[in-house]
Design a protein that fits this description.
single chain; 494 residues; mainly beta; Immunoglobulin-like; five-stranded antiparallel β-sheet; binds calcium ion
Length: 494
Amino acid sequence: MLEPRLQYCDGGSGDRSLTFTDVSGGGSERSSSHKLAENLSVTASVSASAEAGLEGNKTSLAAEMSVTAELHNSNSWGRADTSSYQTSASTGITLNRMGCSSDTAYAYYPVLYQATDGTIKATFAVDPLASNTGKGFWIDEYGQLPDPALNLPSRFYLSPSGDWVPTVRSTRQQMRGFFVKHSTASPITGLYDLYPGAVADGDVVRLEARVYNYGTTQAVRDQSGARVAFYAAPYDASTNRETGPRVPIGATDLPAMNPLQMVTVAIEWDTGDMSLGTKQDYRIYVVLDPDNALAEKQEIESKATQFYYDAAKQDWLPCRDLSETDYAAKQCIDPGQNNEGFGYVTVARPALSAGPGQPLDADISMDDWGLATLDASGTVVNGPLEAQYGQPIPVRITIHSDTRSQEHRQVLVFDGDPAAGGVAIAGKMVFAGSTAPEGSSVWFDWMPPTVGPHILYAVVTEMSGDVVPDNNTDTMEITVRYPPTTNYLPSISH
Ligand SMILES: [Ca+2]
Ligand SMILES: [Ca+2]
Ligand SMILES: [Ca+2]
């Protein structure tokens, strides 16, 4: 529903208004999209439905469905085109475009569309070779070797000064493009359906990962010897920590890939007894080319490719020459690595009383710990928090249920009261079928846009039959301050 138009990130900058077309035909948009290579990074916006206010304490069912719908865009971003063109009001969004150097210019192609449930989503594709001035740079940098890569959108964050800063926390390895599906195709559609909630203990699931070749001109040939390995690590969502070692659960050959092509690789995983009783979360790691059979632009990270941040020098320094003791003490990362990432799976033992859906009279709730974060010492606190401007804040969402099931629920988090113009900052699916006292949690990173006081509001979807309605929200106060300036006062000797 956006007028299709190729844009360039080049010497210019400024705001560009993107105007929705009225109910428009899809022909031109679809044909334009075929000119572009697979996108390098897809951003799907969170769309809070109008009913998601705290006053009514209800998110609509439509809002809950949006994430499922999003995940069903199976292989190609271009498929998103099929669900647009239903808006009739003429309105628009503003794209704030940072200036790029003309030497490194590239083309991008924003797409705004309306999903079948009515939510509006934004995405974009890029073509690094479409700019005459920038093409040489992208071939010099990414044209010498192929580069199988996972989509790891949180490897960097944008600092208030406009610089891209490497993420040190584990979110740098969180994947976009990881799917948990049934291992047998639906007889009706021929597709592997997604699990909408937890995996039932004992199911054989199909784990899918999208792999991109970021090389701009070099292909990955067939039978290159490169594999894709999958591992499972038990994970405690309440602390955001892995609680056991990674265990290999399968591997598959990396297929042939053209430059800038995306492929989907999959393994099957038998989850028998993986609930460890009633429910267990896992991080599923995907590792590209673990045996290094293929020379790539960005290899698996190692001590030789890692850096650490030296706060005193305010600079990133290489880890390769550190002693083993120093190496263990530093947080060494390779900010460019793209061969290792993870997604999440919850395995739960089905409750005998619950059928395919959760009983409508379940009480889904959120208490004072519905929103929590980490203080400076790394302790989980539920606010108020003093935070430093320019640093992402880890935010934990926790919900509770009085009924065991396999279900997930949508949680929306707002910066400011959503009834008074608060901005949606996250929409997360949280497992809603655990009756454990600690509930079920997920984490996300939030970058406060301004200094000063912020109040975050969270609301979890309650179904109409919820036996204790309106106990489904929490707030948390965060005060954001500028970082202290360093004073290098001369020492005075008497
Ligand atoms: Ca390699
Ligand atoms: Ca790579
Ligand atoms: Ca409730």
